[in-house]
Amino acid sequence: MRDKSTEIPPGYQESLETVDYIGAPLNTPEMKFFTRIGPLQAFLNEQRIAGKSIGLVPTMGALHRGHMSLIEASQENGDFTVSSLFVNPTQFNDPGDLERYPRDLDTDKLLLEKAGCQVLFAPDTREMYARQSQVRFDFGQFDKILEGKYRPGHFSGVALVVSKLFNIVRPDSAYFGRKDFQQFKIISIINDDLNFGIKLHCRPTVREVDGLAMSSRNLRLSADGRNHATTLYRNLLSARQSLLDGISWSQVRAEVEENFRSSAGVQLEYFELADSATLSTEVKDLTKGILLVAAIVGPVRLIDNLPIA
Amino acid sequence: MRDKSTEIPPGYQESLETVDYIGAPLNTPEMKFFTRIGPLQAFLNEQRIAGKSIGLVPTMGALHRGHMSLIEASQENGDFTVSSLFVNPTQFNDPGDLERYPRDLDTDKLLLEKAGCQVLFAPDTREMYARQSQVRFDFGQFDKILEGKYRPGHFSGVALVVSKLFNIVRPDSAYFGRKDFQQFKIISIINDDLNFGIKLHCRPTVREVDGLAMSSRNLRLSADGRNHATTLYRNLLSARQSLLDGISWSQVRAEVEENFRSSAGVQLEYFELADSATLSTEVKDLTKGILLVAAIVGPVRLIDNLPIA
């Protein structure tokens, strides 16, 4: 296998096309803004009685085109779109990461309004956590591997805040990005096991022109770090191609790890091939496999993934 | 302290009065019966749109006057009352207990209809658990003590099925019996932490004339066992009186344990004094204490409790 990590790999444009961003429509810039649960619920009840289908796009703000593609998907489905903006402390295992997480409410508001989002719900921590939470979630194998291994408690915090948002908003549909693939699995489990009955949408990752997955944390990359960060996606693409060419996973992984070792400024945490249904690393059917990567670039931890088929 | 466990203790009639059963009204015997989630939800949506407030009374069937008092509380609050009947396998740590749990759907239906219950939801296991659940709940200290210590996994199963029922029915109010005091705590945590926003009612334990707490499992007691079973409540009453008389908890507990040792056919599992808010056994304010007991009588495990004030 050639080291494809230093060149634009084949299939690259094709991948971009499937996730291309469609410009936000310039429709009526009118959006309701709530910070409290009670008034939000009263307003949403009116919409429900008026027969509207409610779509929820949960975010932690610092919005990028990935988020906007979720708003658009909700709009295209004809949902009355509610976006939530809450930097959820219980899902941050690293207090420094929480503190440094990018925040820009004013810009976020403008972006959402421009995209036709009908409601923004931006509660503060006291509104979401009126008292110390006492419940923790456990997902067996699902939250012990990949992100769960490196971020203990992370998925319990995700499950908690998403359960809160599901109960507060009672959406018909909810929209998530595929970049956080394991998170989407966890949310699907919650939705099924607790009978929320919400239609969940997992939308393709939106990428920069050089392939870097959009992420709010990209804002914290230095100019050099921004260049190094492309290593993740380039290796996902090259590993996928190698696997499709019949090269064994152990060989592919060894080569990817060597690529990362020789890449300046990028420290690999994991690079795994997993079954996209079970997240098990015993992949019997390659076409159902997904490659997942996490790496540290300067002060930022980045993740990405790529389905084989 | 006298051994009060062999006589009808003072204050006994008073206790009974506060929980006396008011006969079920003989109103229109018309009740909707559902076994499937979809049709139930469609019907309940109609009721909601018609402005009705929905009250949920979750049961495992084999209904007794304790259950009926919950239906009545819901009716008195003006709720459109939905009772669920589901023997939830995930909360049984003992498969034998699950297998032998009393079941009598026909009688239950008649009782509910007579009490004016508007909807009975009695799904089968496949409807409630369409696939193997993958989420487990952890409540820190709350599910490691008392019942949690003797029934590992029990409260995770309770939290799971109650979350399902809350999401399926979306009630405004839900009614539970105080006999399962720790269960009510766990459900309160779920309701708060996950923002279900349901008004929870904890109703007084209903008792037989000799003080035995009503329980579906009482049906499985032999004639002798039925007599022995009164030991639980008699010791709760005598222990409460002793504590109010200023006797120390260590002395009271020692005497209760001696009472149980000398009572034929009753095997004590625990007898604890706990803070009714935190369930901590460090009780600083006796007026906020609650006595909790579990004991085995023949083939049946019984629980009961009594607040001090």
- Residue-averaged pLDDT of chain A: 91
CATH class of the largest domain in chain A: Alpha Beta
**What proportion of the residues of chain A is helical, as a percent range?**
25-40%
Envelope shape of chain A: globular
Between the first and last Cα atoms of chain A, what is the distance in angstroms? 20 Å
Q: Could you say which structural class the secondary elements and strand pairing of chain A correspond to?
A: alpha/beta
Give me the CATH architecture of the largest domain in chain A, please: 3-Layer(aba) Sandwich
**Cα-atom Rg of chain A, whole angstroms?**
20 Å
Q: Show the largest interface.
A: A-B, 29 and 29 residues
In total, the number of strands of chain A is 10
Strand order of the largest sheet of chain A: 1-4-3-2-6-7
Order of helices and strands of chain A: HEHEHEHHEHEHHEHEHHHEEE
CATH superfamily of the largest domain in chain A: HUPs
- The fold-level CATH name of the largest domain in chain A is Rossmann fold
**Assembly status:** homodimer
Number of domains as seen in the coordinates of chain A: 2
Largest β-sheet summary of chain A: 6 strands, parallel
User: Poorly predicted ranges of chain A (pLDDT <50, ≥5 residues)?
Assistant: 1-27
User: How large is the count of helical segments of chain A?
Assistant: 12
